[in-house]
Every structure is written in structure tokens, then in C-alpha cells.
Amino acid sequence: MVHESPCARVRSVSRANRSGAHFEQAASAEHRTERAVSARSANAGPKTEREEQPSSTLPRRQLGRHLRDWRAQAGLTIAEASRLMEWGASTLQRLEKGQADRIRTIDVRALCRIYGIPDAMAEGLTGLAQQAAVKSWWHAYGDLIPETFEIYVGLEAWAAKLTAYQSEVMLGQLQTADYARALIRLGGSQDEQEVQRRVQLRMQRQALLTRPVAPANLDVVLDESVLRRTVGGARVMAAQLRHLADLSTRPNLTLRILPFTAGIPLGDATGPFTVLDFGADGRGQPVEPPVVYVEGFTGDLYLERPADVRRYHLAHERLRRCALDIQASRHLLRQLAKEYVHE
């Protein structure tokens, strides 16, 4: 059965050329940045316990941003504030960027006094500092997770919405244990204990979609090649596709398949990416700026500039328009699952 995408009927050559040039420029910039990130990671050497990434990324970033704003309101430079704290300037810079190795509440209180922060706000900042110091569940797997991925897991756990595209393998949050296990073994992990720990980590990450209180929303487009590329054998694939079809009935999950007939919707090859949004506060302001996570083989890329975030949201919207609708996507999943069973 051939599924024709809406995109195949309405594509314009000129529009494809324009979008292709647009995304080619963006991809070139991303590749340069990714090479720089990878080079820095390669030269950094192994991490010591003191150099581990923060256990809870979002509270640290929130705390750092508030402290930076209050310092500016107090009319102090980083050098001046650091001198009053008897710190080196780099210590305060790391705190303001959410990259501090350790955050002490006594230091946060001292900064609040220096900046003249009101008591109610100071109490909130102290609470953020206490929250940032708590080790989260994924740190038990720190020896198995790439350094840059720890950042993503921290962001993902706090996300209110994930907007994703996968072009090659199943999105981690949607994988069955057997699919994940087969994929991990293909990656070179042979020790059974290590494999099992990695599988458990991946399964725990899925809780953000199924937790009873405020589950995250997921809007994902999967390329048809993800469904047809066999991982773990026909039986594993059949179970994986049935699992996908069942998950697609959840109210917080929107899943669409981009069929081969859609061609190249963006005019250029597009790798996997995820846009993380963190919701809004009581005043309707974003709790945290959205972040784009672009997966890489030797290093991962994080983009926070509003222009970059908009570019990826637009890319996802174009992919959605070219994909099958929700019902047709679910039908294709169940159809392919039956085909795997009969192989």
C-alpha cells in the first residue's frame, strides 16, 4: 500500500530551493559549532568527581540568571561582586551561567545581601540553590552517559513539551526495552550488566511522558526509514511498532510518520533534533528559554538563540505538513508490525 504525503501534492520547486539554501547555511554554522564543541570535549580529558556536570541543570540556570540580573541592578561588575565575596571572577561567572560544580546556600545568602535582594526573593533563590544541589536519578549512570548528554537528560526531565524529529532510529522516549537493548549492543556494549543499566536508564527517561501528574507533551515526526530499519530482528520490530501505535493514542503524544513519498521536505538532509520547551509561569512568561538539542556522533549541540529555536520550530512544522496524519500514521504502524510478524 502506497501512502502519499500531502507534501508530495503541493511542493513547489522554488520553495524547496529557498528552504534548501536557508537550511544549508544553518547546517554549515551548526557543523562548525559542533566541531568546536567536540574538540573542546576531546581536549578536556576525563572528568573527576569534582568536575561532574550539575545534577539538576534547570534550577542552576534559573538561579544563575536571577543572580546575574540582581547583580546588574545593583550596579556591580563581576569583578566587583567577586571581590566582595573573596572569589575569583571565574567562580561567579560559572555560578551565573549555571555551571557551578557546587552551590552553597551560605554563598547565595551572602550574594543576596550584597545585591540588596528582598527577603522573599532571597528565600526563593536559596530554595533554588538547595534544589540544584540534589543528585537526580540519572547520576547513578554518569559513568555510562556521554558528558554532553548529561546536560540533555537534565533539561529533558524538566521539559513541559518536546518537539522532535527522528530520521534514523527510534526516539529514546518511545523505545521498548528489547529495541533499546538491541541498539545498545549494536553500539559496542557487550557487558550484560552495562547493557542492562543503559536499558534501565532509557526506560526511566520515558516516565516524563507517563507520569500521573503533569506529563510532558511530545510532538514527534518519525521518518519512515525508522520503521523499516530492522533493529533486533523482526519480532523486536513488530513489538516496537505495536508499542508506538498504542502510545500514539495518549492525549499528550502526537506521532506522525514522514513517508518516503514526501521526498526531502526541507530541500536538504535533516538530522534528528529535539526542541525542549519548559512551560510558562503564572504571568505567562517562559519558565526557561526553549532549547534545541541536536544529536551528534562525537558531540551534541545545544542552541538557545531565539532565531535558532524559531528555525527548528519552522522545520518541524514543515515536516509535520508533509507527514501522514495521525490516523494514517497509526494505521501504517500496525500494518508494518503485521508484516514483520509474517517475515
TrEMBL record:
Residues 1-64 are annotated as: Disordered. InterPro entries: Cro/C1-type_HTH, DUF5753, Lambda_DNA-bd_dom_sf. It comes from the Bacteria. CDD domains: HTH_XRE. Residues 8-19 have a biased composition (Low complexity). GO terms for molecular function: DNA binding. PROSITE patterns: HTH_CROC1 (PS50943). Pfam families: DUF5753, HTH_31. Residues 67-121 form the HTH cro/C1-type domain. This is XRE family transcriptional regulator. It comes from Nocardia panacis.
